[in-house]
TrEMBL record, chain A:
The keyword Hydrolase does not apply. Gene3D superfamilies: MetI-like. This is Spermidine/putrescine transport system permease protein. The lineage of its organism: Bacteria, Bacillati, Actinomycetota, Actinomycetes, Streptosporangiales. GO terms for cellular component: plasma membrane. Coiled coil: none annotated. Residues 62-268 form the ABC transmembrane type-1 domain. Belongs to the binding-protein-dependent transport system permease family. CysTW subfamily. InterPro entries: MetI-like, MetI-like_sf.
Automatic annotation (TrEMBL), chain B:
It comes from Thermocatellispora tengchongensis. Gene3D superfamilies: 2.40.50.100, P-loop containing nucleotide triphosphate hydrolases (3.40.50.300). Keywords: ATP-binding, Cell membrane, Membrane, Nucleotide-binding, Translocase, Transport. SUPFAM superfamilies: MOP-like, P-loop containing nucleoside triphosphate hydrolases. Its EC number is 7.6.2.11. It holds the Pfam family ABC_tran. This is Spermidine/putrescine import ATP-binding protein PotA. It comes from the Bacteria. Residues 23-257 form the ABC transporter domain. Part of the ABC transporter complex PotABCD involved in spermidine/putrescine import. Responsible for energy coupling to the transport system. GO terms for molecular function: ABC-type putrescine transporter activity; ATP binding; ATP hydrolysis activity. It catalyses: ATP + H2O + polyamine-[polyamine-binding protein]Side 1 = ADP + phosphate + polyamineSide 2 + [polyamine-binding protein]Side 1. It is an enzyme of class 7 (translocase). Belongs to the ABC transporter superfamily. Spermidine/putrescine importer (TC 3.A.1.11.1) family.
Amino acid sequence: MRRLTPYLLVLPGGLWLLVFLVVPMVFMASVSTQEGDVVNGFVQTFHFATYGEVLAQYQTQFLRSVGYGLAGTVISILIAYPVAYWIAFKGGSRKATYLLLVLLPFFVSFVLRTVSWKFLLADDGIVLGPLKSAGLVGEDFHLLQTTAAVIGGLVYNYLPFMVLPIYVALERVNPTVIEAARDLYAPRAVAFAKIVLPLSLPGVFAGVLMTFVPMTSDYVNAAILGGPENTMIGNIIQTEYLVNNDYPVGAALSFTLMAAMLIGIFAYARALGTENVLEAAAR
Amino acid sequence: MSETQAGTGAATAAPALPPVPAIELDGVVKEYVARGETVQAVRGVSLSIAEGEFFSLLGPSGCGKTTTMRMIAGFEEPTRGGVRLHGQDVTGVPPNKRDVNMVFQSYALFPHMDVWENVAFGLRRKKVPEAEIRRRVGEMLEIVDLTGREKRRPREMSGGQQQRVALARALVNNPRALLLDEPLGALDLKLRQAMQIELKRIQREVGITFVYVTHDQSEALTMSDRIAVMNDGLVEQLAGPREIYERPATAFVAGFIGTSNLLNGAVERIAGGFAVLPLGEHGRVLVEAAGHSPGDAVAVTVRPEKITISTEEPAGDVSAVRGTVSEVVYLGTYNSYAVKLGDVAEMTVFQQNAHDSTTTAERGDSVWLSWQPQHSYAIGS
């Protein structure tokens, strides 16, 4: 019985994943090689050509999504790191409050928050309206339907997922270790570069995983804040499934995106996730 | 007895200038503001630590000893007063520009670096050539007996090994002074005692000034050339270990260092070079007469191991008090007796368990306690 305990503990979660992840995945994988249409039904023909076709047709959106995801992730790091650093080292007894503030947007629906950004950024909205009446920006200047708006929305929506893991990593850095570096002739900047930064990299690593993946496959921000030029692969997948009812194309796109992401993350983990980075930083 | 390096300039004709002390504190005060209230952690400490000295700051937690050390290292700036390192005022100089290194209480090793990189850290910051780094780190690891463990990570090492890495990491820079903040606190007793001897050996070998912060009086007595006993932000006594122990300057020092008996009385007369303090039916205490005159109210200390127990009233010019044994504790190498002098005092007496020891008092026995006049001192309060 004792030996079985770990397996029994894993059973509910394992069953959940099996029923709601593995089974649908297998099903969708099968759909991706079927042919037909929603009226006459789909037939399994092992039509792998769909993959080549979707890649060729939606190459632009694929690359754009990865580009947006990368840009959003980098900007998130730049914003989240100082925030996490400040909370971890200067937050004092109010750390929990500050963390709650970081998480506060989560108490409002994702779509609702993004829609409110649409109001904020609208051409005659509360930001651009006064600026235009004051003549500070041109009449034809707009923020909505731009790349900046989509990436801004992505960063806004996923920022907490970057702040939290970096905060956790920084929180674990013993402040006397930083003092030790200062004592051993390291100026503030060097102590940060040689001690704090390397020790917080696992948090940055986790944050990148938690933001890059959902950002790249996001469709809400592009749909609400972007224009025709900002369509991401998520929007295409959504359209294929829900509008065109072309399930094989939608499934093939999904699996292509997933494979690309898994390979990318695997390479990233091999390059950055090991202790090699720490060792390099130690020099 | 001092470990201080003797001056080498004896042969030169020029008059020797007094050597510049390694560390000087000049009326140092450190105030914190906590919840709108100003708290003085250090309330005016002045001291001077000689080159090559093993100097201890000893006191209970919260006495200001660690704050004092952190001001020397540069992690705290004094609110008032000055810190001089080798005659140079270091006010406002950040820790990375002070030529002193610190061994932290929790070691504070860099967890992402191996032993070698930890020890080489300071030298790399100082841009020492790689060949010299290799030589010096290698030598230092040999001194602390860690050769062959260069590739270990701190978490893969025992507490004692981590302690030695911390020591090597500081010492390898050849600092003008080494600051040690309770470096042995996390080790068990056996290892701590071994490391005390080890630290003393290393200090002799490298000849660097050591400033040692501890709350452990036996540690301070074992290793130090001089000890500053601190309490409540002030230095209560600054002297060598023997003097601190034998002639505590204040009641606090007497109580903090070892076990001490305190008796209150008034000088009745001066006779035969001794001041006599009668304790009524409980006997009398003699102290050396110098500085006393009849009528003075004084507090007198005597160490438990200086006291002899007897059943007969002792003769001669000795302090002799009478009481009832209320407790006997067998402690292996010695017995500890608690002897009640009515409601005047309860005294602690240690008696060696020598094989010829004949006076073994039992609980309830009426006994005489006696000691030589030079073993008790009148102290300030």
